[in-house]
Structures are given as structure tokens and as C-alpha cells.
Design brief:
Structural class: alpha/beta
Largest sheet: 10 strands, mixed
Shape: globular
Number of strands: 20
Distance between the termini: 15 Å
Number of helices: 8
Helix content: 25-40%
Length: about 300
């Protein structure tokens, strides 16, 4: 079983919540649900560090409270993407602090590191005798953020899909399942663009079993392609926000097996003013599920709501 969520920061109002209520507070309402899965996945969009030097060339920078690791651990995160446009907001030192913090708690990570080899290395977990490899790539490419043989950064996705698909094929030869994360798309757009669709399909053609993506700050379609599942944007998950729509998200639960992805369940959440996700029911759930139903239909996927959850 896989549980997947979108973007998480431990800065700004989330950092304020941690300072008043502790490191586990941002994920407290969803930790039990997430930790029940065999493999729990998300995107860590801020460093976990009190060091590093702020990137003066960027308008928006994040440096998350290191105590956020408590929430990630309590929620049972197994795999985290760090391939995103904030991974070097406070430079290589803050990235190294983050890697060390995750390693110390046994949370595997992919998509960024001290050099290209580290950024492109799949994170691997074993569950019930099956191996799951996780690769992560960023299509959003701030200047100086791409990892090289001698420089920290992330694994480049955009304009580099030949290398991406080669990495997926290589992982598929070695491991039972391959899950791929992309950080991509256009912020605040409901519909995945043509580049997202093309590259998601290419990833599955290369051997990916699931494509789990983020960055737009809103939810986008879920789609089945060759019995594999694509979530074009899981939205924000631990993230303060300034509009109704950016506070709407969901937890994606699915069964991963030899015949593909089955038993996909969508459980809606709403992020409070501090960016804390909480499960919602009734009309609040309906708004989120209705929108996901509409945008997923455009990708040929039927989302069926029963009560306050849905299946796809």
C-alpha cells in the first residue's frame, strides 16, 4: 500500500506553529492515516536546517524548522522527494543538514544531494519481500540548482527526459517497483499541460509504476495510463496559503501490485491558516472531490465519490 501527498514546508506560518506547539504539530491530524501505509511518500519543499546562507537571487526562499523532522517521523514517511526549486534556497550546507536529519531518522530521499550521483541515486525500500525504488526530478530549474559532478543540487527533469527515462529503465531492471516524482507544471492551474502529460506517459513507458507530482499549489487530475497511476499534482500538504483553492488537497492511497495500481482512494484534506492538513467531510470534502472529478474526467479517469472520500 502506498500513501502519497504533495508539497511540505516547515517555514513561515508552519514554523510559527512548530514554535508554539512542537515539531509534530503540523502533521498531527493526519499522522495515523499516513503511517498505516507500507510506503508513505511526499515532497519536502524546505530544508530542515538552521544554517546555510540565503540565496539572494530568489524572491521566495524557505528554510524549515529542523524540529519538523518529528512530524515526518511520526507520520511514517518512508520516501521524500527533494527535487524542487527550493532545495538550495540556503545553499549546499542547509541541504547537507537536511540529508543528515533524514538519514538519522531512517527516512529515504531522492532527487537532490551533494552531487549528481547522489541526486540521481534511487531511494529504495523493501516491503513484504518486494523492493520499491523511488526517483525524483525537478522540471522547475532555478539558476545554479542543477546537481553536477562537483556541485550540490537536484536531478534535472525538464529538457532531460532521455536521461530520466534511462534512469527509470535501469531502476526497473533492479527493483520490483519504481515510483517517480516530478516537480513541474504551472502554478495555480487546474489542468496539467501537454509537457506534463507527455513526460508522465514517457516515465510509465520506461517502467514507472506510479508518477506522483507536485508544484502547482493546487490539485490536478489523476489518470490511469497502462494500468499505472499518474497524479499530476497532489497540491500542497503542509503549507500556509492565501486562497481557498490552495488550501484544498488530498491523500492518495493505492495498492501497488504485479498487475498495476488498484484500490485507489482519495481522502480530502484542507490546510488551516498555519498550513496544517486536516481531514474534511461533508460540503468541504465535496468541493475538493467535485473539482478532482471534473479535471480527472478530462484525462479519461472516473472519480467516484462515496460520502467524504472517493475512488478512482
Amino acid at each position: 500500500t502506498v500513501s502519497a501527498v504533495g508539497d511540505m514546508i516547515f517555514d513561515r506560518k508552519v514554523k510559527t506553529l512548530i514554535s508554539t506547539a512542537g515539531g509534530a504539530a503540523p502533521l498531527a491530524a493526519v499522522a495515523k492515516h499516513l503511517s498505516a501505509a507500507d510506503v508513505t511518500i511526499g515532497n519536502l519543499e524546505s530544508s530542515l536546517s538552521s544554517g546555510g546562507v540565503k540565496n539572494a537571487a530568489k524572491d521566495v526562499t524557505f528554510r524549515g524548522d529542523p524540529r519538523g523532522i518529528q512530524g515526518l517521523t511520526a507520520a511514517g514517511f518512508d520516501l521524500l522527494s527533494m527535487a524542487n526549486n527550493h532545495v538550495l534556497d540556503y545553499g549546499a550546507d542547509a541541504l547537507a543538514d537536511t540529508v543528515a536529519a533524514l538519514d538519522a531518522k531512517g527516512i529515504s530521499h531522492a532527487g537532490a544531494g551533494a552531487d549528481r550521483d547522489a541526486a540521481w541515486k534511487p531511494a529504495v525500500v523493501e516491503r513484504d519481500g518486494a523492493t520499491v525504488a523511488y526517483l525524483a526530478f525537478s522540471h522547475i530549474l532555478p539558476a545554479g540548482f542543477i546537481a553536477t559532478s562537483s556541485k550540490a543540487g537536484f536531478a534535472q527533469g525538464r529538457n532531460n527526459m532521455e536521461a530520466v527515462t534511462a534512469a527509470i529503465r535501469s531502476a526497473k531492471e533492479q527493483y520490483d517497483y519504481v515510483i517517480v516524482s516530478f516537480h513541474w507544471g504551472v502554478e495555480y492551474q487546474d489542468d496539467a499541460n501537454a509537457d506534463q502529460v507527455r513526460d508522465a506517459h514517457a516515465a510509465i513507458d520506461a517502467g514507472a509504476d506510479m508518477v506522483l507530482a507536485h508544484h502547482p499549489h493546487v490539485i490536478q487530475a489523476v489518470e490511469y495510463y497502462k494500468n499505472r497511476l499518474i497524479a499530476y499534482s497532489l497540491g500542497d500538504f503542509v503549507f500556509d496559503h492565501y486562497s481557498r483553492k490552495t488550501g484544498e488537497a488530498f491523500v492518495l492511497d493505492a495498492q501497488l501490485g504485479p498487475d498495476g495500481v488498484t484500490d485507489t482512494k482519495i481522502t480530502p484534506v484542507y490546510l488551516d491558516s498555519n498550513g496544517k492538513p486536516e481531514f474534511v467531510t461533508g460540503s468541504a470534502a465535496k468541493v475538493i472531490l467535485d473539482r478532482l472529478t471534473t479535471i480527472s474526467a478530462k484525462r479519461g479517469t472516473i472519480v467516484s465519490t462515496t460520502g467524504s472520500t472517493a475512488t478512482a
